Amino acid sequence: MQRPALSAIAELLKPITWFPPMWAFGCGVVASGMHPEGRWPVIVAGVLLAGPFVCATSQAVNDWFDREVDAINEPQRPIPSGRMPGHWGLYIALIWTLLSLLLAWQIGVVGFLAAVLGLVLAWAYSAPPLRLKRNGWWGNAACGLCYEGLAWITGAAVMAMGQWPDGRSLGLALLYSLGAHGIMTLNDFKSIPGDRQMGIRSLPVMLGAPGAAQVACAVMAVPQLIVIGLLMQWGQGGHATAVALLLVAQGILMRRFMAEPLLRARWYSGVGVPLYVSGMLISAFALRGVVT
């Protein structure tokens, strides 16, 4: 049986997508307010779990169940191009699921349960019968929760030796998860033709490109406004100001994106999203000041 090249496997697992959950896990570690001495092995394991394992699994699962859509939108991808022959895409998704669970088991109950939930969401997003991605509201919510909130909460819980994070940390994690819904929408603009043909009701398909751009920007901005208010309430005015300045910069870029959403969705992902996740880390440091 023909086997895929290592380069095709690496492309299937999409290392560039691992950054958001790894970053969110790190934010949770910072927000815990605990010092990392003696915890570096579990921190490294958690970062690997969030990115090269659970996130990579989600990419393989998505590409396998999206192979017909990708044949229309991005035929150069490993599966539709034939560089990932036969059922190898499915095999890799299953293997990476098992490897993720094995690694999660090594970092404790919290890490294991978080990995189980993340993997369930990954399969539910792409695979029938649920295939949450058929509706942009539900699918993007699942991705936002998995990529940002779940990873943040896991990082904080692992540092707290398995205890649930402080309620303020949970609140920030959920707010940034909500904002990540808009980030997920940005990724849907490139797939409009195939999504429309295959009955996938992404927000750009349902609302049109201008409407989806407005919704994405609002969904990203409103949670950050709430975060700024919370940081002010917690006495972290300097951090709140920094997040506000980042939001102002995003607003300027959002205006350009909304003017030509089809042309600038990928551009905004590259220049606007880094500002968003920078605010996450600033908020985590602010919370560290509160809890310590």
Automatic annotation (TrEMBL):
EC number: 2.5.1.62
Keywords assigned by UniProt, alphabetized: Cell membrane, Chlorophyll biosynthesis, Membrane, Transferase, Transmembrane, Transmembrane helix
Superkingdom field: Bacteria
Subcellular localization: Membrane
Membrane topology of this protein: Multi-pass membrane protein
Gene Ontology MF terms: chlorophyll synthetase activity
Xref: Gene3D superfamilies: UbiA prenyltransferase
Main localization category: membrane
Transmembrane helix recorded as keyword: yes
Record field: transmembrane: 12-34, 40-61, 105-125, 137-161, 167-186, 207-231, 237-255, 267-287
NCBIfam families: chlor_syn_BchG (TIGR01476), PRK07566.1 (NF005742)
Name under which the protein is recorded: Chlorophyll synthase ChlG
Originating organism: Roseateles amylovorans
Gene label: chlG
